[in-house]
């Protein structure tokens, strides 16, 4: 189980470090175009994915923080219970690291720092961060694992 928690810790550290760099280098709303389809930006997300409930008046900070804490407890219990299911635990560890990275932002800043911004022409994907990426990859691995035959 320690290797999975270690991986979660690496995700948290990478997430917080990249957000720290963005907070130091960019003003809110600033864009740095790196390619025709990718910018580094600094946005603050007070909601959840795709800024869901971002303008809800503040209660969502406590709500999403509580969800992250409960999910983290459940994930740690699952990691303890199934340490030899490698794909399952890898997915859980990535989700845990992402959840804790974004939780830290919510608790300390009141919002989540997003900075990866992909676009094509007039089509834009909402900005996201390392924690969001880890959560998405982790969920994809959990879905993949759910289709595998269990021995």
Structural write-up:
The protein is 58% helix and 15% strand. It has one domain (2-27, 41-146). It is globular, with a radius of gyration of 16 Å. Strand 3 and strand 4 (123-124) form a beta hairpin. It has four helices and four strands. By secondary structure, the protein is α+β, with helices and mostly antiparallel strands. It starts with a helix and ends in a 5-residue tail after the last helix. Strands 1-2-3-4 form a four-stranded antiparallel β-sheet. Helix 1 runs parallel beside helix 3 (86-109), helix 2 packs antiparallel against helix 3 and helix 3 runs antiparallel to helix 4 (130-146).
Please give the structural blueprint.
Layout: H1 2-25, E1 31-33, E2 38-45, H2 59-81, H3 86-109, E3 112-120, E4 123-124, H4 130-146
Antiparallel strand pairs: 1-2, 2-3, 3-4
Helix pairs in contact: 1-3, 2-3, 3-4
Question: Low-confidence runs (pLDDT<50, min 5 residues)?
Answer: none
Biggest sheet character:
4 strands, antiparallel
The total count of strands amounts to: 4
The backbone outline, from C-alpha atoms, is globular
Number of helices: 4
Strand content: 5-15%
Order of helices and strands: HEEHHEEH
Class from helix and strand fractions: alpha+beta
Radius of gyration: 16 Å
What average pLDDT do the residues reach? 90
- As a percent range, the share of helical residues equals 55-70%
What's the structural domain tally? 1
Please list the strands of the largest sheet in the order they lie side by side. 1-2-3-4
Distance between the termini: 21 Å
Pathway: Protein modification; lipoprotein biosynthesis (signal peptide cleavage)
Catalytic activity: Release of signal peptides from bacterial membrane prolipoproteins. Hydrolyzes -Xaa-Yaa-Zaa-|-(S,diacylglyceryl)Cys-, in which Xaa is hydrophobic (preferably Leu), and Yaa (Ala or Ser) and Zaa (Gly or Ala) have small, neutral side chains
EC number: 3.4.23.36
Function: This protein specifically catalyzes the removal of signal peptides from prolipoproteins.
